[in-house]
Amino acid sequence: MMSPQWLETATGDVEGAVDEAVKFSDKAWNWFTNVDMWTNVLFAGIRIIVLFIVTRIVIRVVSKVIDKSLERHEQSRINVNSRRLATVGELLRNITSVVCNFVLVLLILSEFNFDLGPLLAGAGVLGLAIGFGAQSLVKDVITGLFIILEDQFAVGDVIQTGTYKGTVELIGLRSTRIVSMNGETHILPNGMISSVTNYSFSNALAMVDLPVQNERTLEETVNLIKQAIVGLQEQNENVIAMPDVLGIQSLNTSEYVIRVVAQCAPNTRAGVERMIMENIKQALEIDEMQKQTLIELAAAEEQKEEA
Fold first, then answer.
1. Cα separation of 67 and 63, whole Å?
2. Is 217 left (phi over 0), alpha (psi -120 to 50) or beta?
């Protein structure tokens, strides 16, 4: 038989549970029907949307300003590398986007009543710790920034750093990618790039040394070469100035060497040199054919006279 004391205890527990459930439901109802809270949430959401739209507008406007400024800068210079301006413009646009989005995140957190002071202080301490722990990474990033801002080289330039030579395929804040003439891809940390030779900054000088047998006279050889290189500028748009025959470069008992030079566009030296040699070779072949024809004609005349 149940004791009255146990029944009173069970009844009290049930009533306590019912009271807790009623209190929870009242709290939930008050939370859902709290007009002030939902009004604040609504205005906070509107402010967040407005901040997002304003941030996108600011990024777009600043990007347009950067593009216009670089366009005016490009038009104001005679010899300008458009690839360098494109690289700098892309860097400035990325920095603008990162800064604006970072400010947007901070403003959104402030809308949710986050205390930004400790957050920024913690971010500073974390950045300092990362800086000490990743000094090589920081060095790579800083070097990459100076490479881009100082226009040391740009995408598409032919450079040599150390033993690596090739065309720049990608410039990042941490590393640079170079593709060699043989198709090999070299990925170099920017911190390793201590010195750079850029072959795309100024015009190149094509240089051809032509060995000639001593049996051929100097005047005849020079005239033949000059005839061969006439019209080279029309054949190849990369040739900036008319090629020049400098004269004898070296001399020995069996042959002498004639040097021919031509100013050409950057990174086109090899192609221009090949074209000069092809034209001279064709001129020499034609000259030899003409001489052979004259010899044959003279021999034929002698045979007629003898007959």
1. 6
2. beta
